[in-house]
Structures are given as structure tokens and as C-alpha cells.
Amino acid sequence: MQGPTPVSALIHAATMVTAGVYLVARCNVLFALSPLGSATVAGVGAVTALFAATIALKQWDVKRVLAYSTISQLGYMFLGVGTGAYAAGIFHLVTHAFFKALLFLGSGSVIHAMHHAYHITHAHDDAQDMRNMGGLQRYLPWTATLMWIATLAIAGIPPLSGFFSKDEILGAAFALGTAEPVWLVYWAMGVAAALLTAFYMTRLMLYTFHGPNRTGERERAHLHEAPWVMTGPLVVLGALSLAGGVLNLPELVGGKPWLEHWLAPVTALADRMRPVVELSAAVEWTLVGGAVLVAALGIAGAVRLLRPEALVPARLAPPETGLGRVLWKKWYVDEIYDAAIVRPIHWLAREVLWKTIDARLVDGLLVNGSATAFRALGWLGSRLQTGEVGFYVALFVVGVLLVVGAALH
Amino acid sequence: MYAQTVLTALLVWPALAAVAVLAAPVRWAKHVALAGSLVEFAISVPLWWVFQPAGGMQLQLDVPWIPGWGIHYAVGVDGISLFLILLTTFLVPLSILGSYTYITTRERAFYALMLVLTSGMIGVFVALDLFLFYVMWDVMLIPMYFIIGMWGGQNRLYAALKFFVYTFFGSLLMLVAIVALVYLVAQRTGVYSFSYFHLMGNVGELGTLAFWLFGAFFLAFAIKVPIFPFHTWLPDAHVEAPTAGSVILAAVLLKMGTYGFLRFALPLFPRVALHPAVQTAIVTLSLIGIIYGGLVAMVQPDFKKLIAYSSVAHLGFVMLGIWALTLQSVQGALMVMINHGISTGALFFLVGMLYERRHTRQIDAFGGIAKVVPLFAAVLTIVSLSSIGLPATNGFVGEFLVLVGAFRTYPAAAVIAAVGVIVAAMYLLPALQRVIYNPLDKPENARLPDLSARELAVLLPLVACIVWLGVYPAPLLRRMEPSAQRFIETVRPAAGAAAAAR
Amino acid sequence: MNLDFQALDLSRPGDLLVALAPELVLTLAALLVLLVVAWRHRTPQDLRLAGWLTLAGLGAAGFAAWFLWWRGAGAAGIPAMIAVDDFRFVADWLFLGTTALTVLVSFDYLEREAVWVPEYFVLLLFATLGMMLMAGAQDLMVLFLGLELMSIALYVLAGSSRRSAAGAEAALKYFLLGAFASGFLLYGIALVYGATATTNLTLIGVQIATLGLQHGTMLEIGLGLLLVGFGFKVAAVPFHMWAPDVYDGSPTPIAGYMATAVKAAAFAALFRVLGEAFAAVPAWHAIVWWLAVVTMVVGNLIALVQRTLKRLLAYSSIAHAGYLLVAVATGTAAGAAAFLFYLVAYTLMTLAAFALLAAKGTNGERDVRIDDLAGLAQRRPWLALALAVCMLSLLGIPFTAGFIGKWVLLAAVLVLASVISAGYYLPVIMAMYMQPEPSAEAHAGMRLGRLGSAVVAAAVAGLLFFGVRPNRLLDIARVSGASVRVAPAVSSDAPPASLREPTGR
Hints:
- The structure holds three protein chains of three kinds.
- Chain A has helices spanning 5-14, 19-26, 28-33, 35-56, 62-82, 86-121, 141-155, 161-177, 181-209, 217-220, 228-243, 258-273, 281-305, 322-328, 333-383, 389-408.
- Chain A is mostly helical.
- The longest helix of chain A is centred in the last third of the chain and has 51 residues, at 333-383.
- Chain A starts with a helix and ends with a helix.
- In chain A, 44% of the residues are buried.
- Chain B has a two-stranded antiparallel ribbon.
- By secondary structure, chain B is mainly α.
- The radius of gyration of chain B is 22 Å and the shape is globular.
- In chain B, a hairpin with a 4-residue loop joins β1 and β2 (71-77).
- In chain C, 72% of the residues lie in helices and 0% in strands.
- Chain C contains 20 helices and no strands.
- Chain C is mainly α.
- In chain C, α10 (242-249) packs antiparallel against α11 (252-277) and α10 crosses α13.
- The longest helix of chain C has 32 residues, at 165-196.
């Protein structure tokens, strides 16, 4: 995420981060053979989806919001493949690629404009911080519109692509939940994450494109839309985010699930082992309705509760406090890892393994120590050479006694 | 004609070239040496095509030397030693070229010693008579000792003496074992001979004596590999040696230890080697080497010492691969031996180039030099990734084969060893970052010259090998496979028979 | 007079004279040099004349020995006083060769140290004579005679630099301790005579076998005392205390001579005595073995802490005596071959080392510290190389004769001892090659004359040659070692059978 935006768009939206999902889907037989394994995968996915969504609520850096959003959506994908709906997981992987790449590239367009402005005015403000943005819709209309499409897609508003893929996953989870309660917990987490997703994405759009502009008087004159080489791909991705759902329209709405049929040979064996529980149409429609409601609630909630006009530019912003601080600090996960794993290992390697065992014990005691021991013995022996003949004779006689004694034995 | 004489030519030519170097005028010494080493490489290259993978030990020559004691000059090559020979002849010209600006005093002596060392190394890899093997083993001690002691760093006297005495101790024990073995076999067969084949065929049942003999061989080779806890000579020797010395030490000399296990220790004493206690001990020591070596490397402030400890880690993989005795693991072990030679050799070259520019090897003395020496940074990155074992580099091929092969014999050990791959990243990537990516905060680093044509000529062949072997290692694996298979078939059944008899 | 070289009857005066030809030639040479020296002893040229005459005498004696060897000389029946076998001839060459090399090295040394003592050469000749008698002795009295002759000559030689207090101290210590040890030796001979009623080595062996004296008390005590006497001469621990002080104070060529030829003579005599007379007595194997172990270990350990080169070489020779004792302890034919080979190799490397040491310092080289050699490789590369080869050969690195020697002697304890010895041989090399010169004049005074250089070059060449192609020397060693035989048990009334098989060529 610290990398250049196009790189983020490629690897963090679509390709690198989805390798794990691909691995599970590809090894579907192994996971189908182990219900516990599948449940673990799904559980991890659900927790991830919720956990990352909470963090995204309080991030100020545009790309960081998108990064945690990616993690959250990956959680959905894992939830999908964990339930045995491998096609659903892959479907969400595909649609996510569309709208997340769009979001990243769009944010890149925004950051590009901010950078440009700051460069001209020689300001050193953070071009990625949302607190320095605001009301950019006026200056970057195309970007704003297209990013709104992506936002709606990720929130799960029909008939955009994200709605279909997310709904299929949640449906699969709920279906399994009718047989085992733990899946309902996962489903509930998924729904909660959906709410938060809608909320924080709307937050991102509000703070970036709407409300008053906080970039600065001098910079404002230099804000403008990106050239068509940058907005062109956004259009393409926007179209795909809009219409991508056709890849796998559920039969419920009278569509053909192309993707599922196409992947059927791959998942055939696994499907035979774990038959998907069928839900009645009524339940399915209820779920659909609920999902849309949740998404709408998230968006509306953000619009109602958030006050873009209350924001100040980043360099003037007060530090976060309380729960907000914890979320902003990503639940201190990095700090915990550092303290619990990284530092102890470093300490162990330096103090124990290197300085004590290697330098003092093996090298010092055994290697150099043996050399010193031999030297010491030699020194002791050399002390015997006193130069006095009488002493030599005495030692001689001792030798004689020993030899003759040995000869007599 | 070529078949009969090539190995002897490879053995003798460097010694002759050394004489030529000593006779040449000082200014020409390095060029004569380079020419000589290139000729040596040229002699060895046709081996690639002449070698028949299925032909077992080939290109043999057997001439009586001290017939009264059954000592012959017997040489030969098989799939196990072929690539070690090629590795040696490949790296020596690069080392000589890499020393052009590093060695500025007593050049004739240095290049002559390097060439004599080459003779010794080739001799170790081709010897099929245990006396010849021992002689060559000791012969390569002396030039290395002088190279470290005469052209080395601050602490070179201590490092050279330590290297010599430590290795000498092991090798003397091995000498006792060799003589004892020959004597015991002579008692049984009535023929007093140091021939490898004769001993292998007649070693038979030795009882508890075999443990002592194996122990002596083990010690000699364990010191060379080096296996924890016999490894402490390595960091000192590597750090204090001049660049070419470190390269040859890491790339070739360490492989002699593992070669010794493959050629002598295991085939001669398979029952001892596969005794459960011995297996456990050696696998444990290998794992300790992998993890411990890696962790200690992580906290080294001196780049060269870091690489030295990383050698301990890499060779832990080799030992694990050898002892796992599956075709994949043994081939993997051989590949790691070759790959480690290439990538660690390249790393030492690179650190040497840094040293020539700034006269320090401390990682913290650098920072952000990617902007100043981009070509160097690129090569350093590629080589580091190869050392870590990134797929598409040669390092991956070897380690992967070892892990896959070892999993069948020692699953738990393979899992732990796999963690070792992560440890490799843990010690190399931060160092890489601190040297080339962090902010450029020291003014001395702002105007370093990038790689010269000569330095590129040294590094590019290595980088080419890194990529080639990472992408298309099949030609090597194909040539190694029959010999590796034969090795496994020699060792496993003998151990199995003993287990059944017990 | 029918002279059958292969079966000389030593009871006939003519045959006895033939058998003693080398010794007689050497005696004549010694007397001749003595006479010459009586008249001409003032100028350096006189000294040189004496030296060249000595060399001529040594050469003549060597020729005589070679002639006898070439004709396959052997004694008929049990030899009476002097043995006539390959072992003696090979040993004789060794002594004569070593003495010749010492004489060559001494030329420049004596001039430099201003030791105008031409008797030096006479004494060397007498010492050599004594050695030859020791190695060829078939009778304990002849052996004692030879030993005393050699020793007394050496007592005087040790103090030949009359202005040196250290030399006087060395001579006196050597004399006192040597006399003390000789007393033990003689008492041992007496006890053995008391037990077996004979002093002829072969007959002693016969008597022991016939009378079943293998575990007889008097015999064993006598044997023990004999071992003590020999132990002193070879400087085995704990009878070695004289060696460092005496080597230190003696002129360097004499120290080298003591370290090589004297030890060789004592070892040869010991070997013959134990092999011919006491082969049936099991007691001495273990004693000699333990002496060997202790000598090896102690010699190497104390050498580790020596700072001056002369004392280092002294302790090094003590350690090598330990290695040689291992060969003696085995008592086998293979041990005999190993022993002779190692003796030759050891002589070459030690003598060359002492010769190089002689070139370095002044004041008898008592002051040459290892650090004084720093940077020698830069200034005098060939000298440094020669010394390095000697050190490496002493250490036992392949391609040197020292390696072949160690390898044939092999024993596990030897391994450990060798590793320790690396701790003091290598610093010499390190000083020469790996340390910078303290100043430009540090090695200005080091001078090895033409003759000395020739000696060193020949020795080093020999070391390297025998390291690569030891075949011929090993064969000679084997054949000679095997030529020392003990008599089988015979009953007293049957005529003694011929003991000698014709030696193959």
C-alpha cells in the first residue's frame, strides 16, 4: 500500500492478495474433506471481514482505507470458499477486482491532483490524507462519479456487481447456518461487516469529494481532473463494476450463473462431498432485501452522522482519543507483533544465540579455551626447566623408579 | 585421449600455471593467472557433454604411486563430483578477475597460491584413492592459510591459525581412520590397498569399531561443512580473508565437507550413518544450523559475517538433504551445494566491492546507495533473492527439492527446515534494506562509483547462472540423477540389512 | 686369503678388519686430521683445511660402508663384536651424511663466531666413530664403548665456543648428567650380564629363550636401567631435562648435530638391542610405548610456550623423539621400516632448520626470537621458503617427507600431539610471511654462506622429493629394518645354525 498506486491497484486489489483464495479454491477437494478445516477458513474470513472493516472506519489516509477494505473483502472471499461455495468466492474475487482497482486508480487520480497542487505551491502536506481534501467533486467530476459507482458496488447496492457476489456468499453462509448454528454467527459477522463497509466507503466519498474544500487557497487553483490516460481505465472499470454481475446471476432473479457452471468441473468432487443446502425462494428474497437494507442503512447513516464541514486539515487536526484512537491504530496489531514476536526474537538471536552461545560458549570456552588450556599446560611444564642440575637429577631418579617399577610388573 | 587425461590435466594444469605466475613479471602476474584459470575452465567445459549420466564413475585413470603400500594415483568423476569440478573451474577465473584491484602487494605469490589451491580442490573432488584424497585435502589447507594470513584483514593471524588448526585436527583424525580402515580391510582380504572401490566393496562388518571410524570421518567433514558446533572458525576465516579467498572458501571449500559425506562417510559406513541415534543427532544438528545460523546472521553488524553465518544455514539444508536419502532430497542437496556456491560467492564479491569503495563492511555505514550505484543495487538484490530462495532463482530449486525429499523421511524436520527459509529472508532483507534502500544520510556514500566493466564481468556470469538454474535446472538434474540414485542404493540397503540382522 | 663377503668369519682377524673397514678408515682420518691440526691451527685457512680433510675422511668411510653393502657383506654364524648387516650400513650412511652436512654448515659458523678450534672437526670425527660403533655393536660392551666415545666428544663440542659462558654451562651440564645416565646404563648392562652370562646381543636373546628368563627379576631391572640410559640419550621425558639447556648453550651446528645424529645413533642402538636381545621379553613394549606418549605430549606442550627459536627446536626434537619411540615400541618389521624412514626425514628437516637458525642470529642464536623473523619472506624469500618447508615437514603436511614419516608411524595420540605442534610451528611461518618487517635492517645480518645454502637446499629438496616419491627410501628402510634378526631358540649342544639369509637386492 505504501507502493505506487498502479502497483497497489494491481496487486492489492486483484492479484497478489487473492492468491490465498485461489489456493483454497484450487485445493477445494482437500478442504471439502475436512469440515473443520473449511469452518476454520470461513471463521477466519468472517472475523477478518469485520475486524478490518472496523479499522477502515477511522483511517484518514485514502489508500489505507482502501487497503483495509481490501482485507475486509478478502475476508468475504474466504468466507465464501469456506462455506463450500467456491464459485461464489471466486465470483467475489472477480467483482472485487473490478471495483477495488477502480477505487485504487481513482484515489490515485485524486492523489495525483493533490500532489500536483502541493508541488506547485511547495507545500509539504500529506496528499493522501482525506482531511486535506474535500469538495473535490467540483474539480474531478469523472473520478468522483466513477468512484461513486465503485462505492455502490462495494456496498452491495443492486444491480451492481458487488451486490450479487456478496449476496451469494452471505446466502451460502446462512444456508449452512440452518444446519449448524456457528455458520449463522459467521453470517451475522458478514452482515455487520457489510454495514460497516457501506458506512466507511461513504465516509471516504464524503470527506474526499463533498463538503468544503480543505486543501488550501493557493492549491485550489491547481486542482484539476486527471488526463484521459488515467480516467480512461476508470471508465472501463466502472462499466465492469456496473455490469459485472452478469457473470454469475443467480437463478433467483432468473439469470444464468455462468461462472458457477464454468467452474463446475473444478469443484465437482468437492460439491459431491458437501452438498449445498438449498434455501426456499422466500428466505432468499428476505435475505436479499435485508442485504439491500443494510447497505442503504450504512450509506444513509454515514450521510446523516458524518460532518465533513467539521474537519480540519491534517496538520491542524487534533490527535485521536479513546476507541477512535484504537481503531486508528489498527487495534495495535503491529505494535503487538513487534513487542511479542519481533523484539523477543531479535533479543534471543543477539544476546543468547550470538553473544552467549556462539561467542562465549562454543568459540570462547571450547575453541579458544582448549587452546588456552594447552598453552597453560605447556607453561606449567616449562616451569620445570629450572636450570638446576640437582633438580634435573631428582626428576631423573623419579623416572628411573617408574621405569624399573614398570619393568618389574 | 581426452577421457583418460582430462582429470589429470585439470589437476596438474593449475600447478603449472602457478609456476608461470611466479616466473612472470609482477605487472603481468594477474593476467597470466587469469589466462591460466580460463584455460582450466576451457578444459573442464567439455566434461558437460562428454559425461555420460548413466555411466557411473567415469574418465578414470589408475596408476600405481607407492605400490608397496597399495597407494595408487586413481582419479575419476561421477554425477556427484562433476558439478563440483565445474563449479571450481568456473569460480576461480572470476575470483582472480575479482582480485585485480583488491590485491596490491606480493601479487605473484597470491595468484600462484590461488592456482595451487585450485589444484588441491580439483584433486579432492576427483580422488578415488583414499591416500590421494587425504593428501589433496591437506594440500588445499596451506594455500588458504597463506591467503588469509598474508592478505587478510585486521585479525587475520588469529583467523588463519584457527582455520588451519581446526581443520588440521579433523583431517588428522580422518587420516587415522583411513589407515585403520585400510588395515582392517587388509586383514580381511589380504590385499593392502587404499583404493576407494576396494574399500567400499570389502568394508563388511566392523562392529563397534565402525562407530569410531565413522566418527573420525564425521568430525573431519563436520568441521569443513561446517556443522554446529564446529562452525566457529568460519565467521573469522570468512571475514578476515580477502574477497577472492572468501569466495573460494564459501563456494568450494565448504562443499568438500559435504562431498566427503557423500563420497566417503556414508558409503563406507552406512550402518553407522543410519543408526537411529546418529540420524537423530545429525538431523538435529542440521536443523540447528539452519535456524541458529540464520538467527545469528540476522543480528550481525558486519555484512561479511552475516553471509558467513548464512553459509552455515544453507549447508544445514544440504546435510538434511543428504541424510534424508530420497532421490529428490539428495539431488536437492547437490543443487543447494552448487547454488550456494554461486549465490554466496556473488554475495562475497559484492561485499568486497563495497569494501573496496568505503573500506568498511559494517551494514550501518551504508544506506540509500541504490540511488548512487543502481547497477550494484540491482545485482545485490537479485543475488540476495537467490540466497533467500525465491522461485525463478537457483536457490529455490535446491531448497525446494530438499524440503520435498526430506519430508518423506523426516517430516517434522522438513517442516522446521521450511521455517528456515523464512529466517533467510529475515536476515537478508533487512540488511539489503539498510544498505541500499534506507535514506542516504552519510555524505561519504553519495559519490560511490558504480560497477566497473571488470566488476560486471565478474558478476554477470553469476547472475546468468542464478537465472538459468532457477528457470531451467533440468540439464544438471539429469546428469546428477543416476549417481544420486546409486548413492542412495548403496547406502540404504546396507543399513536396512543391518537393521534386519539386529 | 679367501674373502667371502657374504659370510665373514669374525673370529678371523682378516675378516674382522674387513668388517670394521668403515670404522678403521674413519679412525685413520681422525688421527690424520688430529695430526694436521696439531701443526696448523692458527688461521681461518687452517680451519678450512681441517674441515675439508674431515669431509674427505667421511667420504672415505662412506665409500667403505657402501662397498661392504654393495658386496652383500654378512657375518657367518653369530657375529661376535660387530654386526654386519644392512641396518648398520644404512645407519652408518646416515651418521656420515649428517656429520658431513654439519661440517659444511660449521664452516661459516665457526668463522662468524670466531671459534678458532680446529679440534672441532677431530671431535666430530670421533663422535661419528662412536655412533658407528653404537649402531653396529653386537655386544653391549662395544655399544657402551661407542656411546661413551660419542658422548665425550660431544661434551667437549658443546663447550667449544670457549668465550661463551652458556657454552661452558651446557658442556658441564651435559657431562654431569651424561655421566650420571651412563652409570645407569652400565649398571643395567651388568645386571643383564649377571642374568644371562653374556654381553653378546644375539646370545643374550638365545639365553633368555633357553633359560626362560622372560620375567626374571634381574633381567627386568637390567632392562629397565638400559631403557633409562637410552632414554637419556634420546631425550625422552622425564630424562630430557638436559636437552633444552644443552642445545641452548651449544654452538648451533652442534645443537643440530645433537638433535639429529646423536639421537639417531641412540635410537639405532636401542632398536638393535631391543630387537636382537630382548625380543622375547614382553615388558619393554609397554614401557617404551608410554615413554613415547609422555614424550610426545610433554614435548609438544612445552614447545608451545617457547619464544626463542633454539629452544623451540629443542623441544620439537624431544617431541619427535617421542614419535620415533612409537616405531620402536611396535617391534615389528613394519615398525623398523617406519623408524628408519622417519629418522631420515627427521634428520633432513631438523638439520636444515638448525642451519637456517644458524644463519639468523649471533651469540650462538640464543637470542633469535620468533618475532625476530617477522617479514623475513619479504627480504629473503628463499630462506623463508626453506624454513617454511622445514616447519611444514615437521608438522606433517603432505608432499613433505615429514608427512610420509608421520603417516607410516601413525597412532591416535600422535594425531593429537601433531595438532598441538601446529601451535608452535605455524607461528614461525606466520612471522615470516604474515607480519611486516619491524625495520629495514631487521634481517640485514642474516647470512647463509654458499656451503650452508647448499646444505639447506639439498635438505629441502630431499624433503620435498621424499614427500612425493618415497618409494626407494621406503624400500631401503624396509629391507634394512628387516635385517636385524634375533636368534631362534637353540639347544646348547647343537652347532648354531646360520642366522643370516642372503639379502635380496
